[in-house]
Amino acid sequence: MGFGSIGMIWTLAVPAIVLLYYFFRKKYEERTVPSILFWEQSRKHTESSPLISHLNRNALFYLQMAALLLFVLLLMKPGIAGSGNNSGHLIIVADTSATMLADEDGEPLIERQKTKMESLIRDNEGARFTIIRASGSPDVLLQGSEQADQAIGIVRSMGLTYAHQDLNAAMALAGTVAGGEKADVHVFTDAAGPEDFPPAMPGLVYRIHAASTLPENVSIEQFGIARMEDGQSAIAVVTNDSPTDKKIVLSLEDGQGNPVGKVHELTIAEGESERIVFDGLPAVPGLKLTMETDDGYPADNIVHAVSGGGELQVYADAGLHELVHKALLATGADVTAYGRDEAEQLPEEAIVVTGSEKTFQERRGRTILFGREGQPEENPVFITPSEVPLFGFAPGEDIYVSGLYPPFPDMEAVAGPQSSPLIQRASDGRIAVLADPSMTDWPLRPSFPLFLWSAIDGYSREQAGAGTFLPGERRSVTPSLEGGWQLYTSDGEYLAEFGPAEAVAAPDQPGLYVLRAGKEERYLAVILPEEERTVKAGLSYTAGERESGGTSGSADNQPIVVPLVLLILLLILAEWEVQRRHGLSY
């Protein structure tokens, strides 16, 4: 049984007062009265047991107390917890996003929801159970099982995925699992609105179990690392979404858990944001920012960042062939065209794609050259790229070239023979393509933009950061010099391995992680999605319809008001009859 208004329990004070009055009322001394008028009544008291005698004398009192207690129970809006599932198929959709760690009445919301799920399953033993996890990509954990113990075991072992939930997809998946038959879909989340519902499906009833209260929250909205001339700086933006001012303490740690920089203490007013800067930090590849404060949502109080994560700005020579510009745009890079007279103003850390040999020779690293000065040697050939990370995602196909420029003597060939290569690479990372785009069919093939993407991603990774990932996100990264990567925690615990052409899958748990291959290391940070940095609360309600019509009501309890009202009326009638026959209690 559950209660819709447990706060009305204070009305127990009323029967308590009546009870105290009964014990402290004025007592009368019993005396023997020599009158034959009382002989028959005295004989009855003598013949009956003391308990029955007590009940006979105090029947009105006990009836009144019973009626008062039932009134108190009625005010608390009692109901029988149950699914109301007449379809025989119970589908549970469980939100496993980070906001389910929000505090509700001193306990994480996910634990309270798990308790409700278990109670729901026990109340529906004999039904078919389906459990769907509503993470970033919904998946079915249990389908059509009639084993209640198995369903409870899955609920208990279900952990958080931290990714932002896709309730719309999860509820649509529930409709697919139902297969057009009647089913009750119970959705356990923090809040769900009309936008989360898929198109209506006959026979499905959605019962939303949401968070009833909204905890106070102070969140780290943004955190990043910037390289400076004297080292590194970190910048954080903290927002106070609670209705009161909050005192916070911010501290930094490197990937090994060692304290870094100065501890910041400040007070943030309600509804305000503060920008905090950490200057003079050592050049470490990754940082962890921890915020200590009094709020009800701890998941967004810790955030991680890596140095140099993300792709660099790409500058492309405006005089290059149009196919090169289109291939650069296809890589998804941030590309800016420049004139050759602006080459000296290009940033040192940027990636430059040029057709000028002078610009190529003057720069050190992060430069790609197409063609060079002089006349190419007209000698049509087919060239096969070598097995290097630059071609890790490109198919191993022969490239037709009508002519080649002379090679650079101090550079290594990566496509073609050393004497007449198509592509060379310098020790500082510069790449030279010794043919104009019009002299080869390579720009017309899918391997061409893949080659450029590998080069751009490789230059970006030279900053020791593989970038920032969302929980469970899969993303392609340039292979290591050995081809693939192994994923470790910052403490050195092995997690997974990825092949040269395989996308890296980020862990579910936010934190700092390391990609290793031999002596090569790349740090990556897993952070909360933006939607998971704000906690929500919502109403519990029922939506959907059976074939016979619509339904609505509470998702938690089926009210039992009418039986209680009838029982109270019956007790009042009994009180009248007792008082009519015996008078008031004495």
TrEMBL record:
<feature type="transmembrane region" description="Helical">
    <location>
        <begin position="6"/>
        <end position="24"/>
    </location>
</feature>
<keyword id="KW-1133">Transmembrane helix</keyword>
<protein>
    <submittedName>
        <fullName>BatA and WFA domain-containing protein</fullName>
    </submittedName>
</protein>
<feature type="domain" description="Aerotolerance regulator N-terminal">
    <location>
        <begin position="1"/>
        <end position="78"/>
    </location>
</feature>
<dbReference type="Pfam" id="PF13519">
    <property type="entry name" value="VWA_2"/>
</dbReference>
<keyword id="KW-0472">Membrane</keyword>
<feature type="domain" description="VWFA">
    <location>
        <begin position="90"/>
        <end position="191"/>
    </location>
</feature>
<dbReference type="Pfam" id="PF07584">
    <property type="entry name" value="BatA"/>
</dbReference>
<dbReference type="InterPro" id="IPR002035">
    <property type="entry name" value="VWF_A"/>
</dbReference>
<keyword id="KW-0812">Transmembrane</keyword>
<feature type="transmembrane region" description="Helical">
    <location>
        <begin position="59"/>
        <end position="76"/>
    </location>
</feature>
<dbReference type="InterPro" id="IPR024163">
    <property type="entry name" value="Aerotolerance_reg_N"/>
</dbReference>
